[in-house]
Amino acid sequence: MFMNYHIPTDEQIKSALKKVLKKYRTVNSQYKLKELVTKELKTKKENFGINPSRLRKIAINSDFVKLEIHSREGDPKKLMNRCPVCNWNLKRVKNLTIWGGEVTIEYKCNKCGYWTGKKKRIPKRYVFHLKKKK
Ligand SMILES: [Zn+2]
What we know:
Layout: E1 5-6, H1 10-24, E2 26-27, H2 30-41, E3 47-48, H3 52-60, E4 65-73, E5 91-97, E6 100-108, E7 115-116, E8 121-130
Parallel strand pairs: 1-3
Antiparallel strand pairs: 2-8, 4-8, 5-6, 6-7
Helix pairs in contact: 1-2, 2-3
The structure holds zinc ion.
């Protein structure tokens, strides 16, 4: 059977994402979130196809989502310019130790909150939380 998939708009994804997070509060993987949002968008006539990294970017840009990043250690020699989570430019942060000499370099993303030190943190799993209203 051949299925026809529609590509939802950002607004459609955002509103489905909001419904899903209001229902579940926490979704502990990007794959699961994609499944739930796809189900939420589905109608009797239409099926939707969503790219998981597009969904993650929309989630990062939504004010009701709190993203938690689980990571593994990567190659310390690897240079990173772009955020592996949201593709934003990483900001280089230098930390001088109180004893002078030693400098540790960290990279930080101002968009999604990702950071990494010398031992690179490679995102492995994402957990999506409904952000509490202040
Ligand atoms: Zn980022």
